[in-house]
Amino acid sequence: MSPGASPFWGGLATARLLLRERFGHPAFRVHQLKVLGPLLAGRSVLAVLPTGAGKSLCFQLPALMAAGLTLVVSPLISLMQDQVGALRRRGIAAAYLNSLLTRDQRRLILDRAVAGHLSILYCAPERLAALLRPLSRAGREVALLAVDEAHCIVEWGNEFRPVYRRLDRFRYLLGDPVTIALTGSATPATRAEILRVLRIPQAETVLTSFDRPNLAFRVERVRDDRERFARLRDLVGSPEGSSIVYTPTRRLTELVTRALLRMGVRAAPYHAGLTAGMRRRVLRSFLSGQAPIVVATSAFGMGIDKPDVRQVVHWGPPRTLEGYYQEAGRAGRDGRPSECVLVWQRSDWERSDAAAAVRRYVEAPRCRRGTLLAYFGEPAVACSGCDICGVGAYRPLP
Q: Which of 127, 131, 153, 258 reaches 20 to 30 Å from 209, CA-CA?
């Protein structure tokens, strides 16, 4: 393919046809068109779109128009399993490579990929090295590289998963394919770092408003953990739909789950210490509504299509506001009113590595929505609901 040429056949008219026939949607959203325009013309894109905005379609649909393989770097096993399952149900040739597969299963998937029998291959970043030689030997071109949940480059890319900091090398060895990086929240500094690490400085950046008017934000202070448990029971025991409770550690996930069960509240834990089979069962139960409440570490939720989460509760302050907004944003994906509640006590700060911006959000008597939007570099708007402003009021930031 000559430099600057597009690896995709057809244009937006073809994309609209595939959107209706393969995905069952009548039309694109405006921000999806802003992403697909440059992407289908062969230009890399950084797409910062809120949770529930249809980010996955921005690479899944071009994959059906690509003259080569679409490779999706995905951070979580549950995320790739969920998306691959949905694609297969639509008759789209998709597969994933991760640590749960046996050696024989991985070999079979690699054979299908290099033979051209897959349109989309999801891959954990740690599996990229194993892909390079088979693809190169077979002359199989990667037409599109998608880095999903791209904020992980910054959030996880130093100690937890250092391979994220080497994505530029993998991208080079894959032949510098057209690249799309997608995330639900990113500050200007995070966006710049994503572009730097991936070496796509000229990429088109597509931003939408970070404001989610259907979400109400509350911060509640308690005296001790006993009061926090009681408050949590009241919060998750009342709303219709589902709830997610985020805790900072696996140990707390288990403790909080057991406490809720003793209080007569149906809850299930989700964290990386559980077996893969248990995580799959919890995820299926949550998606089907059989387990209305999941108590989880921050790994749970990315990429999961659960529209009726009415409430996201945080047990204590998160490490960053970016992480908080990613997690809180899993509420209300169907557009209906939902709430995001952070419950904290003074001693949380003694064992927390939370950034200063998190402490300002928690303790300052300012509009919660305005504080979040300012953090992402966006002007404040009329607040549609927070514990400082009430509903329909707005208090400008000083």
A: 153
Average confidence (pLDDT) over 103-132: 92
Query: How confident is the prediction for the chain on average, in pLDDT?
Result: 88
Structural domains of the chain, ranges and CATH numbers in brackets: 12-207 (3.40.50.300), 215-375 (3.40.50.300)
- For residues 305 and 302, give the distance between their C-alpha atoms in angstroms, rounded to a whole number: 9
Tell me how far CA of residue 181 lies from CA of 19, 72, 115, 215, 271, in angstroms.
Answer: 21, 10, 26, 26, 26
Least confident of 74-88, 128-142, 298-312, 327-341: 298-312
Total Cβ atoms within 10 A of residue 81: 20
Q: How many residues does the chain have?
A: 398
d(CA 76, CA 230): 32
- pLDDT for residue 304: 67
Residue with tokens 């905005």: 53
- Answering whether pTM is above 0.85, one says no
| Nearest residue to 125 via CA among 194, 88, 185, 77 | 77
CB neighbourhood size of 299 (10 A): 16
**Token code pair at residue 177:** 């394919």
Amino acid symbol at 74: S
pLDDT confidence band for 395 (50 / 70 / 90): very low
